[in-house]
Design goal:
mainly alpha
């Protein structure tokens, strides 16, 4: 019995957002009994698009495409500031195409390895904090850059160009913010180590690709779609949520992202308001702030904590201060431009 309990607890810790989403979806089923309308709750286009993107990214990962490109570019780096800037903007540009989560999964371990090899552990906390911000900003460029934007793109049908132009002011300001912070990094000479040969393992290639897909993320989306669908079917809650959200999409998007992260926030808000542009701005700005505001934030933290447990508290302080600073700046940009 204890082993079963421990198993559930470990699973809950590992897949916290999925577990909470599933529990809430199940609870909501007692208020709206399961029926054929449940299938209509789920935005299958979002689920399929997200699955295809994840499979494509897993193929590139297993072909070592990203590592090959990074190693080639690292040959150009001459000092510590250049190294950190390169790593930060690698996260920025890669998150445009492979999502912010995957970008950090790939490049944060690479960053820890690189800084360890050049004996600059003092730069790790600042570098990973900037990388996480960069990934959360880079994913704003295209709708495919993050799960929350994939949701909003499929729901809103906003064209790629319009999506980009909507978030462009926040992207520009954020990039300037990252560049300014880079001047706080010492510009010491650095000699990068020689890395081992890259070999693609073809045996079991397709198996690794499909096992690498985050199926719990897909199930999280399905659970959230069911939850929001049931909430919409309860007249009192439908009216209450609409009253809170409509007209306050940006602020509500930011606040709800800090509490439940911006993916559930995107699904929640889009279920009660059709002011999609404001929701998109709110949940993207809302990805900055607390550790839970974005799945990407948690990914960086987990990777860092696993390798350097002693850095956890200092990282949380630096990460939170920088994120809140940028969050407030972008909120000011919103009020100045609207």
């Amino acid at each position: 019995m204890n082993n079963l309990k421990d198993g559930f607890l470990n699973f809950f810790k590992k897949e916290t957002i999925f577990s909470i989403s599933l529990i809430l979806a199940i609870v909501s089923c007692f208020f709206v009994l399961p029926n054929k309308d449940y299938l209509n709750y789920i935005n299958w286009e979002t689920i399929i698009l997200l699955f295809v993107i994840m499979v494509f990214v897993e193929i590139l990962k297993n072909l070592s495409v990203f590592e090959i490109l990074v190693r080639k570019l690292l040959d150009k780096v001459k000092n510590t500031r250049g190294l950190v800037l390169f790593l930060v903007f690698t996260c920025f540009f890669s998150s445009i195409f492979i999502t912010n989560d995957v970008s950090l999964i790939i490049f944060v371990p690479f960053t820890l390895l690189a800084l360890k090899k050049v004996e600059r552990l003092d730069l790790i906390i600042f570098a990973v904090s900037l990388e996480t911000i960069a990934a959360n900003v880079g994913c704003m460029v295209l709708p495919i850059g993050a799960p929350h934007n994939i949701v909003m793109y499929t729901v809103s049908r906003i064209p790629f160009q319009s999506f980009f132009l909507l978030l462009l002011p926040y992207i520009i300001v954020s990039v300037i913010f990252l560049i300014i912070l880079s001047f706080f990094i010492p510009s010491d000479e650095v000699s990068l180590p020689r890395f081992g040969k890259i070999e693609v393992e073809w045996e079991g290639f397709l198996k690794r690709v499909f096992l690498g897909v985050d199926y719990y993320l897909l199930l999280t989306f399905i659970a959230l779609f069911v939850l929001i669908g049931n909430l919409q079917s309860i007249p009192f809650l439908n009216s209450l949520f609409k009253q809170w959200i409509i007209g306050n999409e940006v602020i509500f998007g930011i606040i709800s992202s800090q509490i439940i992260s911006n993916v559930p926030a995107a699904i929640l808000l889009s279920g009660f308001s059709s002011n999609y542009e404001s929701i998109i701005v709110g949940i993207n700005i809302g990805g900055l702030g607390t550790l839970i505001a974005s799945m990407a934030n948690l990914i960086s933290y987990k990777i860092l904590a696993r390798e350097f447990n002693d850095f956890k508290i200092r990282y949380l302080i630096v990460f939170t201060v920088l994120n809140i600073a940028l969050l407030l700046i972008l909120l000011a940009v919103y009020f100045l431009t609207n």
